[in-house]
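TICKET: design request
STATUS: open
ATTACHED STRUCTURE:
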């Protein structure tokens, strides 16, 4: 690899003689750690149950820790007391309720929970929270503004997002739908998107009435929480519409409770039936999942993904870039390679959305761009995820480096989306903690705030 000082000058091609040909040196075994998945009864220190019990999804659901009281009781004697007190304060400041599976709790390093990437995603700590950027909103992507009927967002020409439910097997702190997902918290009263087949009929009627719609994402909430009968009913209903060519079920389930795939045969059979119908109708069905750190991928994960792979189900992953979770080139490369190891296609890496209460997780846009440069070329092209910004205000997914303007000092980037909302500009703002103190003070001043926004917009004219 050339240094900045070197210049490579093209020369006339000629084949080097055998004695001058170079071979790559043997690789360092440490570069192949993505193949070494955690195995054995790693849950025993926290949950003294046998493998059969731990791999039962019903046991996982029943023993998931929900809200403050149960989680604190579990952590007593396991986590440092200082951490527990920190978490107690964090619960009351978070926009999302807390729900964590035994599987995830077993993967957290309780000797240093402050810096564990899994803890960081699910258990809020008051000491780690930063002030919100003044430009943050609760629904930064304006999903509700682009919803012609409740629970259906139609933003792109040929694609719609269907939200049939508002619950998940776990609740991620960084959820972009903290306006609706889970129960009300001390800081947020949720929009009602409960399971309701009557409400779904409004969405189905709209989809059928729009011939341009070809692609439907079934999310929520989380498709993992839909009973098997509804997975099959929704899938068949959509596939039998003449205009629909593709459907995707979105779930974080394989990352947080892979044993459901191993033990809930009804759910897997329902998904398989939908997939088989899609192939019969020459339509595409796939499962989109959500791994954010290589620590979430174990031998149990591999077993579960093997089941789906053998059923012929296409698997893709969408990660969210998060500070302390996957914001280094080394961790992101390990994640991408480990996903490839278990036959899950690394599809997207999202810039963290601008939602309230999780500024400690957001990174600058520059971090995203720098990591993408490193990942591209370190794995096969088809396994290189696209690094994107879901443009605040409803601009949709934009490739991270496709901005029209980006000022790393003010942290303002401007994107356009000519095929989504032509003529509009969409602004993303780096978190305050990534800026200098002088710049943070400017953002606290409403007058200076307006000046910086106008400067960014004017730079695009």
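STATUS: resolved
RESOLUTION: sequence designed for all positions
ATTACHED SEQUENCE:
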């Amino acid at each position: 690899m050339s240094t900045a000082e070197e210049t490579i000058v093209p020369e006339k091609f000629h084949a080097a003689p055998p004695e001058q040909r170079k071979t790559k040196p043997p690789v360092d075994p440490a570069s192949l750690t993505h193949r070494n998945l955690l195995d054995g009864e790693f849950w025993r220190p926290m949950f003294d149950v046998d493998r059969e019990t731990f791999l039962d999804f019903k046991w996982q659901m029943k023993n998931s820790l929900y809200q403050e009281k149960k989680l604190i009781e579990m952590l007593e004697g396991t986590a440092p007391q200082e951490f527990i007190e920190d978490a107690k304060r964090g619960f009351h400041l978070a926009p999302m309720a807390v729900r964590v599976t035994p599987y995830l709790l077993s993967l957290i390093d309780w000797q240093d929970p402050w810096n564990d990437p899994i803890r960081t995603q699910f258990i809020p700590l008051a000491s780690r929270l930063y002030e919100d950027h003044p430009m943050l909103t609760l629904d930064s992507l304006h999903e509700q503004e682009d919803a012609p009927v409740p629970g259906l967002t139609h933003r792109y020409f040929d694609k719609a997002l269907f939200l049939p439910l508002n619950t998940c097997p776990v609740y991620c702190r960084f959820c972009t739908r903290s306006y609706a997902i889970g129960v009300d918290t001390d800081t947020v009263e949720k929009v009602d998107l409960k399971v309701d087949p009557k409400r779904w009929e409004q969405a189905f009627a709209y989809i059928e009435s729009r011939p341009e719609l070809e692609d439907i994402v079934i999310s929520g909430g989380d498709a993992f929480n839909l009973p098997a009968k509804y997975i099959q009913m929704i899938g068949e209903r959509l596939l039998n519409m003449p205009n629909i060519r593709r459907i995707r079920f979105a779930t974080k389930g394989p990352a947080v409770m892979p044993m459901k795939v191993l033990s809930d045969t009804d759910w897997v059979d329902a998904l398989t039936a939908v997939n088989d119908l899609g192939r019969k109708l020459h339509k595409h069905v796939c499962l989109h999942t959500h791994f954010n750190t290589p620590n979430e991928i174990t031998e149990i994960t591999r077993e579960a993904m093997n089941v789906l792979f053998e059923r012929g189900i296409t698997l893709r992953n969408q990660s969210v870039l998060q500070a302390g979770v996957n914001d280094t080139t080394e961790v992101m490369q390990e994640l991408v390679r480990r996903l490839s190891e278990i036959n899950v296609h690394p599809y997207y890496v999202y810039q963290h959305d601008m939602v309230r209460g999780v500024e400690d997780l957001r990174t600058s846009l520059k971090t995203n761009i720098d990591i993408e440069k490193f990942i591209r070329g370190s794995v096969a092209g088809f396994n290189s995820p696209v690094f994107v910004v879901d443009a605040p205000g409803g601009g949709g997914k934009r490739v991270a480096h496709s901005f029209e303007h980006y000022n790393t000092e003010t942290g303002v980037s401007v994107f356009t989306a000519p095929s989504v909302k032509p003529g509009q500009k969409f602004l993303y703002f780096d978190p305050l903690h990534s800026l200098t103190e002088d710049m943070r003070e400017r953002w606290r001043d409403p007058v200076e705030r307006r000046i910086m926004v106008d400067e960014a917009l004017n730079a695009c004219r």
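CLOSING REMARK: The chain has two domains: 51-128, 152-398. The domain at 152-398 is CATH 3.20.20.70 (TIM Barrel).
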